[in-house]
C-alpha cells in the first residue's frame, strides 16, 4: 500500500477519492470524533448512521470546513483540505433546514455560489437554468423561499448545491424535514439525481431506513467511532457487534455458551434452546456469545417442524422454540408477532401477508413453534 | 367583521355590543391617544390658522347676518415657506438629523453585531449596559459634555497639561459639539432595534454562504446586512424623527451656526410669545416628519413577512 495517495498525475485513485485519516475532534475533554479513518470511492453515496451525539454531524462539519479537526487529515482527490476554510473547498453542503437565503429569489439563491466564482453572466444564467431544470423548478425561479412548499425548498437547496459541480456533496439529514409520503418519493428521486450527476456524496442520518435505501455503503457510528462500515446488506445480515445488530431493524438476541466448535458448524446452548449454526466461528468451547436472529428469518407454525422442513438433517432438534403468541402488530405488508417462550423470553417473528397464509392464520394466545435455519443466525461476541 | 351590517338601523348598538370586552380594552389606549395626542394636535393646528391679536384667538367659523364664515389664516405658513431663515433652519435641522443618523448607524451597527454574536449568557448584561444611560437624567448627561468640551474643560486641560497645545481648542457651541451630544444620546436607539433584528438571524445562513464560496467579509455584506435591513430602517427612523425636533442638545451644546427648528420653536413660544407662529412651525415640522414616519410604519409591517427559512 503506497504511503502517498497521489499518483504521478497528482490525483488520487478513485477508490480513495475521499480519504479520512485518523481524524479526531475534541471539545474540551470529550472526543466527539475519535480517531476515525475511512476511504470513500468516487461516485459513491456514503451514509454516516447513528443516534444523536454519536459524532456523525461533527464529522460532516469537518468535511465541510465548519469545524477544525483536533488531529488527523482529510484528503479530497489527493489534496489535503483539513485546514482549508469552507469557501475554498470544492465541497457543497445541503443543510437540514436548507438555509436558503430568504432575501433572494430561487434564481438568485442558485446563482449565489456561481457569482462568488466570478463566472460571466451568460454562463451563470445557463447554469442556473440547467440546475432548475434538473430539479424541475423552472417556473418558480422568481419566487422567494417563503413562498415555496417544504419539498420545493429542498429542491432549491439541492440545485444550489449542484450548481458549482462540487467534488463532494454533503447532505445533513436530507429528508428529516419531510413528511412520510414525500420522504419515500424523494428518497428515490434524490438518489437518481445524485447518480445522474455522478457526484460523490456523504450523508448524515439517524434514520436507518433512509441510510439503507439511499446509501451504497454505511458507517454505523457510536461515541465518535465507527462500529461497522459496509454495504447495507452486510450491516443488516452480518452485523459485527451487538450494538449494530440492535440498531438496524429488529433483532432477537440469545445469550449462550459454545458447546461444540467445528470448522463447519457450531452448537451453542442457551436457556431458550440449542442453536445449530451452519458455519464456523473464530472462538472456542466454553466461550460466552450472543446469537442474533432477524424476525423475518423465523417460521411460525402450529406443529413442530419435521425433519423434511429442515435445511439439513443435522439441524433437526435445534433452532426451534415453543411459545404463545403474546402480541400481534399488523403493518399491512407484513405482520410482526411477539411470541412469549416457555422460558419467559419474548421473541419477535415477522411474516409477509400473502393470502395463502389464511389457513395458517395465527391468533393471540395460540401456541406456536418458531424455528429457523442454521444459516440465518449471526454469532456475536459483544 | 361585516361593516355593511354594522351600518344599519341598530347597527351602532350592535357594533358596540359585539365583542364589547375586546373593544373596550383596545378602546382605552385609543381614548388615551385621542385625548392626549389627537386633540392637542388639533388645537395646535387651529392656533396656527387663526386670526389673533396676540392674546385672543378668533374662532375659525362664525355666523353673522345669515352668512356662515370660515376664516383660515395662511399667512404664517406662507411666511415659513418663503422666509430664507426659516427655510434654512428646517433644512439645517434635517441635515443635522441625517448626519446624526448616519454616525449612529456607523457606531451602532458594530455594537449591535457584537452584542448579537456574543454568548447568550452575556447578552442580558450587555443589554443592560446599553440601556444604563437611560437610568440617569438626560439633561445631566448632555450637560456633562459641556464640562468635557469647554475651553477649560477636561479635554482641553488634559491636552494643555501634556503640552500638546498652547491655546484651548474651541470645541463648544459648534456643530461638532452638538453632533457629539446627539450621537451620544441617540446611539442606544439605534443599537436596540438593530440588536433585536440581528439576534434573530439564522447563523446557518452565514455557514451556507461560506460553503458556497463567500468569505466572511463577503458573507457579511451579502447576507447579514440585507437581512438586517428592517433593523437598520427601524433604528434610523427612531433616531432621525426625534432628532429633527431636538431642543435640549442644540440649546446646551450648539451655537449660532447650528440652526435647529427646536430652538426656533422655543423662541417663538417663549421669547416672542407668538403662539400662532410657533404653532405653524410645529405643524410644519410634523409635516416634514410624515414621510420618514410612513417609511417606518411600512418597514414595521413588512418585518413580519420575510423570515429566515
Mind explaining what this structure looks like?
The complex is a heterodimer of chains A (382) and B (309). Chain A contains eight helices and 20 strands. Chain A folds into two domains: 28-243, Rossmann fold; 250-381, RNA polymerase II/Efflux pump adaptor protein, barrel-sandwich hybrid domain (OB fold (Dihydrolipoamide Acetyltransferase, E2P), Beta Barrel), CATH 2.40.50.100. By secondary structure, chain A is of the alpha+beta class. In chain A, the strands form four sheets. In chain A, strands 6-7-8-3-9-10 form a six-stranded mixed sheet, with helices on both faces. In chain A, strands 13-12-11-14-20 form a five-stranded antiparallel sheet. Chain A has a five-stranded antiparallel sheet with strand order 15-19-16-17-18, with no helix packed on it. Chain B has a single domain (80-303), classed as MetI-like fold. Helices cover 70% and strands 3% of the residues of chain B. Chain B is built from 15 helices and two strands. Chain B has a two-stranded antiparallel sheet. In chain B, strand 1 (61-64) and strand 2 form a beta hairpin. Chain B is globular, with a radius of gyration of 25 Å. Chain B starts with a helix and ends in a 7-residue tail after the last helix.
Main traits of this protein?
heterodimer, A: 382 residues, alpha+beta, Rossmann fold, OB fold (Dihydrolipoamide Acetyltransferase, E2P), 6-stranded mixed beta sheet, 22% helix, B: mainly alpha, MetI-like fold, globular
